């Protein structure tokens, strides 16, 4: 193990822009951060990693002025503070992309990016200079590689596109430190590449960056220094030369990670879910057909806005379909609502957990039991005991980090919330499960657990449809991969043809390079 | 009973003690019976409202429904000579249908609850007035319905039967809201309708059911009110009753954003409001100030509750930090 | 320990009852052994008035004089009060109840007097529109009926009565709209005390004062001013001061055992009077004197 | 103008054309002037309400404020002999203070807007009634304030000055809401107050400012109403005006959840409501149906708007699909 210094000072010559010392933050029942110290030098890119609930977001919220620490000092430019306010933080030049998206969907992109800092026209009236605003936002969007314009209403953007707006917003601040809290959690590869380039650009301009991600290879590529958090405590610091995937994992979870479960060798069973000529409202002129077999994990890849989420919502009955039919086990479904889907054993882990996945104000146990109330009730009356039993079982099997199953779900860290979403479906013995970005914001240890879980499910005969923008995940976990391009399935890759290159080619609508197939193959 | 409910109960008792000290006639059985009769009527109304508020909705047409259904009920039995049990059932069904219509517009056609029920408020009032040509609906002299009158306006061992009805309804609705699957769904929908739908709950049906419950309870209250006043001038009967019902729910800890509140709370809220009305009359406060007293007490009640809650949270946080508190007030 | 209380319960907040308040005050000066009070229900509704009276009975009042919101159908409620205390009615009677007596005027007669005013002002006939707060209220219905009866057989016709739900903005707009919708109307009647002033002002704004005959009820200052000016033909006034003053004294006497003041038919009618241009000064002076009481 | 606004304008024109066809006197200049006078009064009120609704709040005390401030204004100038410009300013300041108090309770103490303003509704009504001891506040016969009367109730070339005032206020408020930074913050707060705060917006101040604007505009409207009726019985003056204002805003495309709506919309909403009131009188519809007509039209308006939007989307999709539509209804 590397030496863990008392404070993680930067070895450079320049005076640190920002330093924390002895910071502590506790919530009822948890110490989210304890005795934490660090320094950030100008132009330094710090990677911050740690398991779900390790305290990363809490730390960033303290820097952003959103959360007040219990103790400790924050020094900016040599001035010591007990705490920062949102304004104080902004004035100090700290820009922030929050883990949870916070855009205003009743305003357009331009208004969102400069909200609170609008360019004004001359005069006492404080009128917005709209031309200047549009121009400034336009160039920012170009920089992050967005394909939409400044006056697009945010309500028209997909989640990933919204994440780009958030990034543009952070860049728009004339900042000296940019904090990115899991900015890539729903970004596919090309956009992620652009972001990494942006980070390098910032560094070149002498701007510091704190970059939080569960995708460790991204950290490896850009970080000058990595801080590892474990249970609210600084578990280790890796200088640039020592940044290494396995070492980060070891510091994060205190042990090395077992190798990822191999892809199943068993032959998939009969077709469990079959979608024929589905037309969605976003792409009404592109019918989509898809089959998933029992016991297989079908990956669904594609670029931002390629229509994967839309397809999943239609299969789950949430969105109306304009045409086509859905069959399970060869039977046509009367699919008009999510309730119909659930009744037929089709479950969805949605993309946006805060809005669609969980009730933030409900205790964990009630979130888990919600879709399966009939099983947790007798003569229409709720059985709390049965709820708690199920919730406890899921908590220990998924390793949900929480004081108890009665804890308010909203107070969990992002990754643990995601586990609660998974838990509620796993408790119901799924037949067909659709997971839209199931590991969004989940730490590497838990990811491995989830992949294991998916494999266990598949081996038990469940059909799994996994939508993911994480290329490694798509390739590493799926038995087959369907790729979408502009609302259509541009191709399905078997195990033999599965490569990063082929997925990308299909995603942009080109032909993949297929391996020659032996006629007498399997 | 939650902490909130206990606080409210204390407030009720303290106010009662003060009033009794000033005017001991407050505690006369006849006064308590009169007041508990009105608690019964308004309580039934408020429980109905509570079911809608829990879903994050609101039902503003309550006062007008009370006028319309009351006019119809009296007309049916006093003028058209319908058997009262038939009329009774018919009115409850009508109330349910009104609720169903509102629920349908809100849950299926996605109109805003405030808008739908505001239109209801206007329309039913107008229809009630048109129905009687702006006249009064009432019983003729000497017209009697002994059983109906006993059930609605009578007393058993001095306890008004309307109050007994409230207790029964309260018990049933307590189980429905706090122990049943349906109740759980209501809370879930109130907290986050989208997430509830993604959990496979048929949110539309549940919301409609909430409005139907509100409609039926409102219809029941309408009959009680009609039998209490025995005459209805549709232009003014039930005016502002929706505000009383909403105020009772809010005092009782309901949030208009939905997903919060308890049956005990809404009943305590009703009791406090009726106690205040009684107080104004008993203490000889100018009746012009009646509204002000009510508004003032609600405001103070909510304020104290809120500040007390904030204080407790702060203390808990400070204690959790086990350090010198640096949790200064957050301004923005 | 306290002096016995007598209460005068009105049917809703209105200036109309200010004169009654003066009457109660005057009676109080002459009845030192009683404590007199005048009560407004916070809204004009049967339930709220009933509640108010229940509470008064609980508080131990000895006698109640009430202007019932809806006397025709509140028989049982009023009887309940009458069984616990001495109940008198005023303003509008409830003859089927066990009230001790009624003291007040007749709205039907008042309506007939309004017809007299119209007939005098428009010997050649005309077309009238009426304005009122609550079309369904008993006093409105009786006044309208009385006026129609009084006009029967003449060339004057009351073609429509518009209600405004006691919203003064609507009351004035109703007059404006009537001027637009019926250009041939020659007379306007304000059935509630505030309707006549609204007619007066709408006519003034439209420059039609003096061209249209205005028949008023009650004694709002603007109405009296219009009468004096000649732009309001005349107004029919009730005498709530007298109701209250005489009623309270009567009630005190009754409770004291002296029942001689109660006539056999139990009706004490204090007639309404027409105030025209010639009487208005005297009437106004009289009002002032009462208020100063 | 948005599509929504154009739809509303069309509705106004169609209703107007139908009424004019039945009774051509509808189009007489004097009728238009009378109606536009009331549009002026209610429009000022509704713009104030709109600012609050945009933040996701609601202001229920408007009707009571109009009664209280109107009573005070008339009392100041008619009874106490205050100079009218002084009284005018004083009333506007008072209105602003009421708004500030509401804003403070809502933004700083985090009380629910519905609760705070409901208490305001009760308290101000009571205070107004107590102030006049339930009597009427009015001018003595022949009491005149020529300048004030010209400004409030007078006409310029036949156009009511109240309407001109509305146009001016509308222009100013349009710039404030749609072009200024403040307006943009209002929309942001209405959508997500928490997120707005994280963007460094001083949400508390902005919300308070919105309530102050509402208070001042309400005070202005109160003066106009007082000068229109010239007499105020505080028990009934302004009753339900908050509902008119809210209905105008909702008809004009505002969402009570906040963050949506435009100044043009709220004015169009006001126009439609006043047109309906005018129509009831001009077509000789029984006054008892006044409310029903209003409620019915609002409901139909909102419904058509909503269904039309849904229909257009569906048609667009079906056309795009270029296939036989199999749009099955979505239930939940
Ligand atoms: N508002 C809150 N109330 C109570 N506990 C909280 C609150 N916010 C965070 N916590 C707790 O603090 C701990 C740290 O959470 P934090 O969000 O900082 O984790 P994280 O490292 O960002 O995790 P993730 O990778 O899942 O986003 C967790 O145990 C969480 O449950
Ligand atoms: N070019 C675009 N401009 C604006 N919105 C778009 C565009 N492309 C897609 N969208 C939005 O994205 C959604 C369809 O994409 P969907 O979210 O289903 O794709 P996805 O493959 O899941 O992509 P993502 O990674 O963004 O979630 C629609 O709701 C649509 O509004
Ligand atoms: Mg986090
Ligand atoms: Mg997606």
Automatic annotation (TrEMBL), chain A:
Compartment annotation: Cell membrane
Gene3D superfamilies: P-loop containing nucleotide triphosphate hydrolases
Transport found in the keyword field: yes
UniProt-listed SUPFAM superfamilies: P-loop containing nucleoside triphosphate hydrolases
Main location: membrane
Keywords carried by this UniProt record: ATP-binding, Cell membrane, Membrane, Nucleotide-binding, Repeat, Sugar transport, Translocase, Transport
UniProt topology in membrane: Peripheral membrane protein
A Gene Ontology term for the protein's cellular component: plasma membrane
Keyword ATP-binding assigned: yes
Domain ABC transporter per the UniProt entry, residue ranges: 18-256, 265-511
GO molecular function, one term: ATP hydrolysis activity
PANTHER family the UniProt entry points to: CARBOHYDRATE TRANSPORT ATP-BINDING PROTEIN MG119-RELATED (PTHR43790), D-ALLOSE IMPORT ATP-BINDING PROTEIN ALSA-RELATED (PTHR43790:SF3)
Family: Belongs to the ABC transporter superfamily.
Name of protein: Sugar ABC transporter ATP-binding protein
Organism per entry: Phyllobacterium pellucidum
Lineage, broadest ranks: Bacteria, Pseudomonadati, Pseudomonadota, Alphaproteobacteria, Hyphomicrobiales
TrEMBL record, chains B, D:
Any one annotated GO CC term: plasma membrane
PANTHER family documented for this protein: ABC TRANSPORTER PERMEASE PROTEIN YPHD-RELATED-RELATED (PTHR32196), SUGAR ABC TRANSPORTER PERMEASE PROTEIN (PTHR32196:SF15)
Pfam families: BPD_transp_2 (PF02653)
Transmembrane segments: 36-53, 60-78, 84-107, 114-132, 157-177, 206-227, 291-311
Key word Transmembrane present: yes
UniProt topology in membrane: Multi-pass membrane protein
Location of this chain's protein in the cell: Cell membrane
The protein, known as: ABC transporter permease
GO molecular function: transmembrane transporter activity
UniProt keywords, alphabetically: Cell membrane, Membrane, Transmembrane, Transmembrane helix
């Amino acid at each position: 193990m590397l030496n863990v210094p008392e404070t993680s000072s930067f070895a450079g010559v320049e005076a640190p822009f920002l330093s924390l010392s002895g910071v502590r933050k506790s919530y009822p029942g948890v110490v989210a951060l304890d005795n934490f110290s660090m320094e950030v030098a100008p132009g330094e890119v710090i990677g911050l990693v740690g398991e779900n609930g390790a305290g990363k977001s809490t730390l960033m919220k303290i820097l952003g002025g959103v959360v007040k620490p219990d103790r400790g000092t924050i020094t900016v430019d040599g001035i010591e503070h007990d705490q920062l306010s949102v304004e104080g933080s902004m004035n100090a030049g700290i820009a922030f992309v929050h883990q949870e998206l916070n855009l205003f969907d009743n305003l357009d992109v331009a208004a969102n990016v400069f909200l609170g800092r609008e360019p004004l026209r001359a005069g006492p009236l404080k009128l917005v200079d709209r031309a200047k605003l549009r121009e400034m936002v336009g160039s920012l969007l170009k920089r992050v590689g967005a394909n939409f314009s400044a006056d697009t209403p945010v309500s028209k953007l997909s989640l990933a596109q919204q994440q780009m707006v958030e990034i543009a917003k952070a860049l728009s601040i004339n900042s000296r430190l940019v904090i990115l809290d899991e900015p890539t959690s729903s970004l596919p590869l090309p956009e992620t590449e652009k972001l990494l380039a942006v980070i390098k650009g910032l560094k070149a301009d002498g701007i510091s960056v704190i970059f939080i991600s569960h995708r460790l290879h991204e950290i490896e590529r850009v970080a000058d220094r990595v801080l590892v958090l474990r249970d609210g405590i600084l578990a280790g610091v890796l200088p640039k030369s020592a940044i290494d995937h396995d070492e980060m994992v070891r510091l994060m979870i205190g042990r090395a990670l077992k190798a990822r479960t191999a892809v199943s060798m068993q032959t998939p069973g009969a077709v469990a879910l079959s979608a024929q000529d589905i037309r969605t409202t976003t792409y009404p002129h592109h019918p989509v057909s898809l089959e998933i077999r029992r016991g297989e994990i079908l990956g669904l890849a594609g670029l931002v806005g390629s229509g994967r989420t839309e397809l999943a919502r239609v299969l789950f009955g949430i969105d109306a379909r304009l045409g086509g039919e859905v069959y399970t086990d060869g039977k046509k479904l009367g699919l008009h609502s999510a309730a119909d889907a659930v009744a037929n054993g089709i479950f969805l882990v949605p993309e946006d957990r805060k809005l669609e996945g969980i009730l933030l104000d409900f205790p964990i146990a009630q979130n888990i039991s919600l879709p399966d109330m009939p099983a947790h009730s007798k003569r229409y009356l709720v059985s709390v005991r049965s709820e708690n039993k199920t919730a406890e079982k899921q908590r220990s099997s998924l390793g949900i980090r929480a004081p108890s199953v009665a804890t308010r779900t909203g107070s969990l860290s992002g990754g643990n919330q995601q586990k609660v979403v998974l838990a509620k479906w796993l408790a119901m013995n799924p037949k067909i499960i659709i997971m839209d970005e199931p590991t969004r914001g989940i730490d590497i240890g838990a990811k491995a657990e989830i992949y294991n879980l998916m494999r266990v499910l598949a081996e038990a005969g469940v059909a799994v449809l996994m939508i993911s923008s994480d290329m490694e995940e798509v390739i590493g976990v799926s038995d087959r991969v369907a790729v979408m391009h502009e609302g259509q399935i541009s191709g399905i890759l078997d195990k033999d043809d599965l490569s990063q290159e082929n997925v990308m080619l299909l995603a942009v609508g080109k032909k993949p390079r297929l391996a020659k197939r032996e006629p007498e193959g399997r | 009973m939650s902490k909130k409910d206990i606080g409210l109960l204390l407030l009720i008792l303290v106010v009662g003690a003060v009033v009794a000290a000033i005017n001991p006639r407050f505690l006369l059985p006849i006064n308590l019976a009169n007041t508990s009769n009105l608690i019964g009527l308004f309580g039934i109304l408020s429980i109905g409202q509570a079911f809608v508020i829990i879903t994050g909705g609101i039902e503003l047409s309550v006062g007008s429904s009370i006028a319309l259904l009351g006019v119809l009920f009296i007309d049916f039995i006093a003028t058209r000579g319908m058997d009262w049990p038939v009329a009774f059932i018919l009115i409850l069904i009508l109330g349910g249908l009104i609720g169903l219509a509102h629920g349908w517009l809100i849950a299926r056609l996605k109109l805003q609850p405030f808008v739908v029920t505001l239109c209801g408020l206007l329309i039913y009032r107008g229809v009630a007035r048109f129905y009687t040509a702006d006249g009064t609906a009432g019983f003729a002299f000497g017209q009697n319905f002994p059983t109906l009158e006993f059930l609605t306006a009578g007393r058993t061992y001095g306890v008004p039967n309307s109050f007994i009805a409230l207790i029964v309804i309260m018990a049933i609705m307590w189980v429905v809201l706090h122990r049943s699957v349906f109740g759980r769904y209501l809370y879930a929908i109130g907290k986050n309708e989208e997430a509830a739908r993604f959990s496979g709950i048929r949110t539309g049906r549940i919301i409609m059911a909430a409005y139907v419950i509100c409609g039926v309870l409102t219809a029941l209250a309408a009959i009680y009110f009609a039998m209490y006043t025995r005459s209805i001038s549709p232009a003014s009967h039930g005016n502002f009753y929706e505000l009383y019902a909403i105020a009772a729910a809010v005092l009782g800890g309901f949030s208009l954003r939905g997903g919060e509140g308890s049956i005990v709370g809404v009943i305590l809220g009703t009791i406090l409001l009726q106690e205040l009305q009684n107080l104004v009359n008993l203490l000889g406060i100018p009746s012009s100030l009646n509204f002000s007293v009510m508004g003032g007490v609600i405001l103070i009640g909510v304020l104290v509750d809120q500040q007390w809650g904030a204080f407790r949270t702060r203390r808990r946080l400070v204690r959790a930090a086990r350090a010198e508190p640096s949790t200064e007030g957050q301004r923005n | 320990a306290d002096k016995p209380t007598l209460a005068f319960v009105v049917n809703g907040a209105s200036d109309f009852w200010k004169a009654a308040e003066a009457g109660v005050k005057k009676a109080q000066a002459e009845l030192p052994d009683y404590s007199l009070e005048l009560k407004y229900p916070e809204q004009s509704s049967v339930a709220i008035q009933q509640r108010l009276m229940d509470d008064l009975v609980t508080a131990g009042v000895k006698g109640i004089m009430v202007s019932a919101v809806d006397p025709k159908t509140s028989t049982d409620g009023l009887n309940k009060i009458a069984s616990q205390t001495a109940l008198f009615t005023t303003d509008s009677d409830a003859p089927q109840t066990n009230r001790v007596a009624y003291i007040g005027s007749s709205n039907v007669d008042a309506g007939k007097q309004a017809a007299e005013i119209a007939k005098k002002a428009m010997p050649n006939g005309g077309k009238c529109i009426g304005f009122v707060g609550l079309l369904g209220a008993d006093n409105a219905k009786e006044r309208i009926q009385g006026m129609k009866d009084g006009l029967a057989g003449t060339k004057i016709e009351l073609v429509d009565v518009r209600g405004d739900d006691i919203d003064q903005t609507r009351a004035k707009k109703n007059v404006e709209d009537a001027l637009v919708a019926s250009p041939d109307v020659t007379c306007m009647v304000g059935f509630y005390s505030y309707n006549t002033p609204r007619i007066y002002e709408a006519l003034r704004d439209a420059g039609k004062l003096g061209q249209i005959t205005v028949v008023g009820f009650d004694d709002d200052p603007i109405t009296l001013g219009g009468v004096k000016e000649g732009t309001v033909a005349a107004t029919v006034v009730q005498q709530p001061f007298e109701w209250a003053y005489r009623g309270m004294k009567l009630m005190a006497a009754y409770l004291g055992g002296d029942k001689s003041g109660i006539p056999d038919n139990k009706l004490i009618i204090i007639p309404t009077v027409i105030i025209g241009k010639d009487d208005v000064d005297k009437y106004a002076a009289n009002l002032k004197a009462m208020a100063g009481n």
